[in-house]
Amino acid sequence: MTLVPFLSAVGLPLVLAAALIWPQTRALVWRMMPFAPLPALALALLAEVPLNAQAGWLILGLTLGLDEVSRLFVIFTGLLWCAAGTTARHWMRHDPRATSFGVMFAMAQAGNLGLLLAQDALSFYAFFALMSFASYGLVLHSRDPQAQGAARLYIGFVVLGELALFAGLALAAAQAGSFLLADLRGAVPSDMAVALLILGFGVKLGVMPLHFWLPPAHGAAPVPASAVLSGAMIKAGLFGMMAVLPLGSLAYGDHGTMLMAAGMVTIFAALLLGVQQGNPKAVLGFSSVSQMGIVALGLGAGLLVPEAWALIMPVMVFLAAHHGLAKGALFLGTGAFAAQGGAPGRVAVTFALLVPAFVLAGLPASSGALGKEALKTALAAGSAVWLPWLVVVLTLSGVATTLLMARYVALIWRSPPKAPEQTTPEAILLPFLALGAASVSLPLTWPLLARSLAIPVSEAAPGALWPVLLGVVVGVGVAVHAHAQRIGPAVFLSHLTAPFRAVGARAEAVMAARRRSVRRLAYAIPKTLGETAERWRLGQTAIALLIAVILAVELGATLRADTAIPAVQQIDPDLLDDLKLIPEF
Amino acid sequence: MMDAPLLPLFILLTSLLASPVLFALPERAARLRTAINLGMAALKVMLVAWLSLKVAQGVIYDLRFEVLPGLEFKLQADPLAILFIALSAVLWLITTVYSVGYLEHGPHRARFFGFFSLCVAATVGIAMSGNLFTFLLFYELLTLATYPLVIHCGNAEALRAGRTYLIYTLAGGLVLLLGTLGLWVLAGTTDFVPGGVLTDAAAQNPLAAQLLFVVLIGALGVKAALFPLHAWLPIAMVAPAPVSALLHAVAVVKAGAFGIMRVVYEVFGIETAQALGMTAPLAALAGVTIIYGSLKAITQDDIKKRLAYSTVSQVSYITLGVALASPIAAVGALAHLIHQGLMKITMFMAAGNLAEGLGVKKVSQMDGVGRAMPGTMLAFSLAALGMIGLPPLAGFVSKWYLAQGGLEAGQGWVIALLLGSSLLNAVYFLPMLHRAWFRDGAADAGAPARPRIGWMLAAPPVTTAVLVLVAGGFANAPFSPLEWTRFIVDIEYLE
Amino acid sequence: MTDPLVIFDLLLALSIVALAVASLSVRDLFAMIVLFIVFGLLSALAWVRLSAPDVALAEAAIGTGVTGALLLKTLHHLRFVAGGQGLRAGSGGTSMAPAAPVPVPVPVGVILANAAFCGLITLGLAVAFLGAPSAGPGFDALVADAMPDSGVAHPVTGVLLNFRAYDTLMEVVVLLAAVVAVWQIERGLSDAPAPVMGEVWQGFARLALPAIVVIGTYLLWVGAEAPGGAFQGGAVLAAVGLLLLLTRAYVPRPAHRGIARGAFVLGTAAFALVALLVASGGRVAFEYPLEHAKTLILLIEGMVTLSIAVTLAALFHGREPVALPKGGRDDT
Amino acid sequence: MTPDLIYGLTGIAVFGIGLVGALCVQERLRRVLALKLCSVGAGFVLVVGAWREPPEMPDPVPHALVITGIVVMVSATAVALALIRRLQTLEATDER
Amino acid sequence: MSVDISAMMLAIFLPLFGAIAAFLLPRAAALIGLVALALTTGAVIWLAREVWQSGAVILPLGGWGAPLGIDLRADGLSVAMLALTSAVGLLVSVSALDALKGAGQSRQRQYFWPLWLLLLTGINGVYLSTDIFNLYVMIEVIALAAVGLTVLSGTRAAVQAGLEYMYASILGALLFLMGVGFVYLQLGRLDFAGLMDAEPTGALIAAVALMFVGLALKTALFPLHFWLPAAHANATAPASALLSGLVVKAALYIVLRLAQYMPFPSEALLTLVGMMGAGAVIWGGIQALRAERLKLLVAWSTVAQIGLIFVAFARAGELGLTESWKAAALLILAHGVAKAAMFLAAGRIKDEIGHDVIRDLDRSPIRPTLAQFTFALAAISLIGLPPSLGFIGKWALMEGAMASGYWHWVVVTMVGTLMSVAYFSRVFAGFLRFDRVRAPVGEHQGWALADAAPLTLAFAAIGLGLMAAPILSFLEIGYPFGVAP
Question: Any chain E CB within 8 A of the CB of C196?
Answer without folding.
Answer: no
